[in-house]
TrEMBL record:
Signal peptide: none annotated. The keyword Metal-binding applies. GO terms for molecular function: catechol oxidase activity; metal ion binding. PROSITE patterns: TYROSINASE_2 (PS00498). PANTHER family: POLYPHENOL OXIDASE FAMILY PROTEIN-RELATED (PTHR11474:SF100), TYROSINASE FAMILY MEMBER (PTHR11474). It comes from Oryza meyeriana var. granulata. Residues 239-250 form the Tyrosinase copper-binding domain. Its cofactor is Cu(2+). This is Tyrosinase copper-binding domain-containing protein.
């Protein structure tokens, strides 16, 4: 039974500075103190109470470490990352967390704040979370990333020497690639289909890999064995920042749907997706089951997002001047797979003629598929895929030639041991806009470069 009260996630969290939105668009001290109080009340509950902060964090842990098994297939685990379950699961998770908080506060209209790290005024960790005397503070974070440090949506463990203006520019261009250039299809944005009886982790969507995963790594304590808390799925829910981060991920799902007035981006209609379900505890500590279909319309869930601009809409990445695009050069030799990405790899990919000859209305998107990406789960992994750029080192993270990035968090057991759970998945990269901008739409082949793997 959904509550009759309406809630507005009206709080774009931002560091102190000029107000660039409507007066009620940024979270004030009173609002943030309410969230602080909710965390205090949740932590005060007995650990055995499913509404406690401890158990709420464990819910996320259980769904991402293989604790649950598929109905009718007990040999197969359920993993809510790396597939089309990522967005709906986290929407439902944050929704019930929000309802529990409202119940404990005696305020059924309470709405979680969201951290809008995708817009310039939100690209710093909100000050309330960096205050060591606040219940929202978590000591297991990267101390170097406290305000006024800007988020780096391409963070790879090392700090970049960008000015604030440069970092904001790169962040906006990365957002454009992940929200506009690469996501014309639901399978590219939401993730690959995951049907009952199939192995988990069929392939993540663009936003899950990068920058969702990147923000987890950026926030977590990189000096810890597992980059806790935010940097590992098993521990991420222990940080109050997690819920503000995922409220923004949920907001971006809504933004993706409504780009071009909702006529371009459409969710899956597959019944297996719509009928997929998750178990949560509600504000009365009752175990409830909710399906993907139940949570697609946030108006029925009675919350909304206060207006935040989308400055990345027109931040189309530029091509990189003065780099070798290989046209007319020597093509790479034969490569035998599988290979380890401990060095950069160059591969020629021939384009099927059918993609060049059929009308555009028939071919919705040309997609590069990187199959059977394997990691043992004990490291944070990142590699980048470039198109037609032999001198890929010259390409900035937001350069046009960088077609996509694969980012994978560590995948450990529920106890946080260093025993990793293996990952075998795929990566998909949309090519239409990239080939157009590179002047390669009529080429018979493209050359892909994968930079060597960064590990942590």
């Amino acid at each position: 039974m959904l509550p009759a009260d309406a809630r507005v996630r009206a709080c774009r969290l931002q560091a102190p500075g000029p107000e660039r939105a409507a007066p009620d668009a940024a979270a004030g001290a009173e609002y943030m103190s309410k969230y602080e109080r909710a965390i205090v009340l949740m932590k005060a509950l007995p650990r055995t109470d499913p509404r406690s902060f401890y158990q709420q964090a464990n819910i996320h842990c259980a769904y991402c470490t293989g604790a649950y098994r598929q109905v009718g297939h007990p040999e197969l685990p359920v993993q809510i990352h790396f597939s089309w379950l990522f967005f709906p699961y986290h929407r439902a998770y944050v929704y019930f967390f929000e309802r529990i908080a409202g119940k404990l506060l005696g305020d059924p209209g309470f709405a979680l704040p969201f951290w809008s790290w995708d817009v310039p005024e939100g690209m710093r960790m909100p000050p309330a979370f960096a205050n060591s005397s606040s219940p929202l503070y978590d000591p297991l974070r990267n101390a170097r990333h406290a305000p006024p440090k800007l988020v780096d949506l391409d963070f790879t463990g090392a700090e970049k020497n960008y000015t604030d203006e440069q970092q904001i520019m790169h962040n906006l261009r990365i957002m454009n690639k992940q929200m506009i250039s690469s996501v014309s299809l639901a399978s590219l944005f939401l993730g690959q289909p995951f049907h009952a009886g199939e192995s988990d982790k069929p392939g993540p969507g663009t936003m899950e890999m990068y920058p969702h995963n990147t923000l987890h790594v950026w926030s977590g304590d990189i000096s810890r064995p597992n980059n806790e808390d935010m940097g590992d799925n098993y521990s991420a829910g222990r940080d109050p920042l997690f819920y503000a981060h995922h409220a923004n991920i949920d907001r971006l799902w809504e933004a993706w749907r409504h780009i071009n007035n909702g006529t371009f981006h459409v969710d899956f209609t597959d019944h297996d997706w719509l009928n997929s379900s998750f178990l949560f505890y509600d504000e009365e500590a009752h175990l409830v089951r909710i399906t993907v279909h139940d949570i697609l319309d946030i108006r029925k869930l009675r919350y909304a997002y206060d207006g935040v601009g989308l400055p990345w809409l027109n931040a189309r990445p530029p091509t990189t001047p003065n780099i070798n695009t290989i046209k007319g050069g020597t093509l790479p030799g034969f490569i035998r797979f599988p290979i380890s990405l401990n060095v950069a790899l160059t591969v020629e990919v021939r384009r099927p003629h059918v993609l060049q000859n059929r009308p555009k209305k028939i071919i919705k998107e040309e997609v590069l598929v990187v199959e059977n990406i394997e990691t043992n789960g004990t490291n944070i992994i990142k590699f980048d895929v470039f198109v037609n750029a032999r001198e890929y080192e010259k390409v900035e993270p937001s350069g046009r030639e960088m077609a996509g990035s694969f980012v994978c968090l560590k995948h450990n057991d529920m106890d946080g041991s260093l025993t990793g759970k293996g990952v075998n998945t795929t990566m998909r990269v949309a090519l239409d806009e990239i080939l157009e901008d590179l002047g390669a739409k009529e080429d018979d082949n493209v050359t892909d470069f994968s930079s060597k793997t960064w590990k942590c």
